[in-house]
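Re: weekly structure request thread

Next one in the queue (440 aa):
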Amino acid sequence: MLPQEIIRKKRDGAELSALEIGDVIAGLTNGQVTDAQAAAFAMAVFFRGMTMPERVFLTRYMMLSGSQLDWSDSPGPVLDKHSTGGIGDNVSLMLAPAVAACGGYVPMISGRGLGHTGGTLDKLDSIPGYISQPDIALFRKVVREAGAAIIGQTSDLAPADKKLYSIRDVTATVESIPLITASILSKKLAAGLQGLVMDVKTGSGAFMPTLEGSRELAKSLADVATGAGLPTTALITDMDEPLASAAGNAVEVMNAIEYLTGAHRDPRLHQVVLALGADMLLIGGLVATLEEGFAKLEQAISSGAAADHFQRMVTALGGPSDLMENAEKHLPKANTILPILANREGVVHAIATREIGLGVVALGGGRTRAEDGIDHGVGFTKLLAVGASVSNDTPLGFVHARNASDAEAAAVLIRQAYSLGDGAPLIRPLIHDRFQGKGI
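Done, posted below.
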């Protein structure tokens, strides 16, 4: 069928067949569908939506547009987690090795940061020598030997998604839940996973700030992935304040190392790691209940087994073999570190979390365009959480900057992001909801 006829059909609100969706994705991949037609298709989906079967077909055909990994020779379940992005969200750095220490195999393909949210790949690029985009042979070797490997997306996995996303990005169609669903899941299906847990963020620092929108996205992701043959559970977690007490790249890696070694663990971060990890172990058949999963993960983390798997992964991918013991020596540092003093006494009632992420970008630690370079050493540390009491000389956190001028500007932004009041604040739930994929 002609692309314009398929576009017309969706524009008028009709349901597309598997063949019609397959024709669009094939044409997008081989160039027979023009950028203008792809933009029109995306806009039609944005306004008319897609049924669950349409979302499954779109996801499957986007997955089939490139190569697929095969882990059938894995000695254990092949599992992964994906986050919709947030501030201080370095969960993957602890979660992947913790699940590996419990018997899972985690081939985690992550992305770079864009906009106000940080990217896992940017954090790992702050580790000297770390090969964040290895060839498939090395990727497979590291997963098998270390139990986990966190790398960047290769160009031959779901190439149709890369092309369609670039078009959506400039046509105001990024927020379409069917298109978001297919974009995320096509890459996960191509990675050959046997189980997936989605971390859908909600709140002021999230891509999807409203709980209603987050629930719709979480259900779509869980049901479409399961319907496409990948058992998936989605959790909605709170992003109304930074998850870790650090935001940046090297500073979040240091935060993860402190977590894994037991030097310091942010309580909210620990809860999210355990919640996502327990569901990964459950979906992989490594535990019978979530409670058993929590206990197994706690043991893997407290015993140092998770830290050992993280170090093995780093070493196998070219990073320092003594990173866990000598992180300060290896990780990049900012030239200026400045305390951000509160301007009044009170209790932290709320944090404009998105502004924290934008502060990292302003310091040079994030990007507004995909081709931008970043400074891995800048960011924020020791950020106070909601409920903390402060006086005039209490630091809300510390800014790590290239120079004093940048540090002062960032400090102003952070003070404005923190809302102080009197009395106890309203504490939001950390885990808002859980959806187990039902397929279609």
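The CA atoms of residues 205 and 354 lie 4 Å apart. Residues 3-49 form a domain with the Transferase, Pyrimidine Nucleoside Phosphorylase; Chain A, domain 3 fold (CATH 1.20.970.10).
Next request, please.
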